[in-house]
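We modelled the chain as a single entity of 654 amino acids. Its sequence is:
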Amino acid sequence: MHADAATDPADTFPRLLLQHASSRGDGIAMREKDLGIWQSWTWRAVADEVRDLACGLSALGFRRGQNLAIIGDNRPQLYWAMAAAQSLGGVPVPLYQDAVADEMAYILDDADVRFAVVEDQEQVDKLLEIKDRLPGLEVIVYDDPRGMRSYGQGFLHELARVQDLGRELHGDHPGLFQREIDQGAAGDVAIMLYTSGTTGKPKGVCHTHGAMIAAARGGCTFDRLGPGDEILSYLPMAWVGDNLFSYAQALVGGFTINCPESGDTVMTDMREIGPTYYFAPPRVFENLLTQVMIRMEDAGRIKRWLFHRFLGVARRCGADILDRKPGVPAADRLLYAIGDLLVFGPLRNVLGMSRIRVAYTAGAAIGPDLFRFYRSIGLNLKQFYGSTETCAYVCLQPDGEIKYDTVGLPAPGVEVRIGENGEVLVKSAAMLAGYYKRPDATAELFDAAGWFRTGDAGFFDQDGHLKIIDRAKDLGRLANGAVFAPNYIENKLKFFQHVKEAVAFGHDRAQVCAFINIDLGAVGNWAERRGLAYAGYTDLAGKDEVYALIQECVEQVNAQLAADPMVADSQIHRFLVLHKELDPDDDELTRTRKVRRGFIADKYALLVDALYAGRSSCHIETEVKFEDGRRGRIAADVKIRDARVFPIRHEQAA
């Protein structure tokens, strides 16, 4: 271990941190907005904070090989806790901050957690609620002391006081922190990230320092990320993407992490910071576009005309100009420059995207029209492909080689091939060490030749770009033998600003049917401008006018599907607007907002049967869980509508 450290002094995250503290100690490593003011920490200051917290945890009994739970919004102190655990040879285990106590109990027990560092009173209360079921949980450290004055349990410790303990320990044993870091090795587990549990109980994915650093270095080199870049860290710390972008790449590239004041202030904080590097899942980009369209509908006539006039120019040539492709007529270049001055530039500024050099999206397929919109207004939006098990690092899209229907080329250092059954198989250094305590499940991930089974179905196009069709397990067949790719259909539906979620059914059936969740904000605004009164989601979702609006969306999707012979048989014949929003708290979505299709099919079997029985409505009562733990019921007569389907247009597909 010591020999490895001498050969490569930057093969673990704590060593990377100390390297930056030494080489660019006065550079800004982190910022956080607190009470409306941005607070900053240099690399040297962050290293000191991590040292004090690590020594404090050591004083409380945290030891090498133990797991440390981390729960809360993106906060510098929680990132320090990750580095502190790694410095001591421990493993941070971030949990989703919006998870209910019961969900946390499973992971805390499965991960054998003895220590937890949490953000505030809300998270402390969740742990106290389940502590009697977690005899192994010995120490809870909280960052924000507000509301904690009357909490006298001896196992509760304020983070600032733990750091005070650490400073005392460091004063008495000044070499302790460095000795612990020196014992670390690239092959040690650096992070444990739990899967979303789409098909079963979540599993702990163990990644080594070497694997995460390999992914981070590959990405930083690919997009030339370095000390001058800024990122806004607002996505859950328990998600592999945040761990790659806001932690691993920041420590490899040396760029600045910015933590927003709260989830409600992300857009304001983003405008103030002006990040150069940005990531958001498709749903965020969809919501932003929905907000833009709503604002334009409410704008004056001249503004609306300018917006739509120049948006037409952007659709025609904006992406080619962004990619610096030749052949764009001079007149279009001039019009686009005027549009950039009057429309696109101000729009990017409102969205906080004026300085973005590289923006990524992943986690689900993004609609081509949505993708094209952002690129057309000058945002260098790209897709990447990966999973929790691959450090979110498999394929990247090179600048100038962007395709709207692919996820790019294999990333540096990654091998990708397509198995005989169409499954995407991967080999790289950025691969999980294994599932925690699940050697059986780990072994199932790899084929006989050592290739990782992604579980996704896809193929390479003529230029070597990978195109993902759907999850292999979700890819089915209609009764006539035609391919049924539910996720592909759902993503086409979710492009429309009025559709928030969709669930398609059709495997082994004669036709495809779908559940739709409306977007309450977009459809609510649409209804208000038409004087259509409603009492809440259930009332709005059941109105005939809303059904007509959604039917237009469904039939536009059907027209698009008809143009592709491969999926033309998957046109949606019947649909309903679900009486409640699909919710992670009701187990209908994962915490990363992936649809749990099998669970939904079972829970709403009554509605599925009604769709296929040709009925025009169905009464249903559904139990819901509220954030405070209470339960209630929602009852509704859900309407069912037929949608127009189109003949297959072979000539367009060709």
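As a brief sanity check on the tokenised model: Residues 1-7 have pLDDT under 50 and may be disordered. Residues 476-653 form a domain with the GMP Synthetase; Chain A, domain 3 fold (CATH 3.30.300.30).
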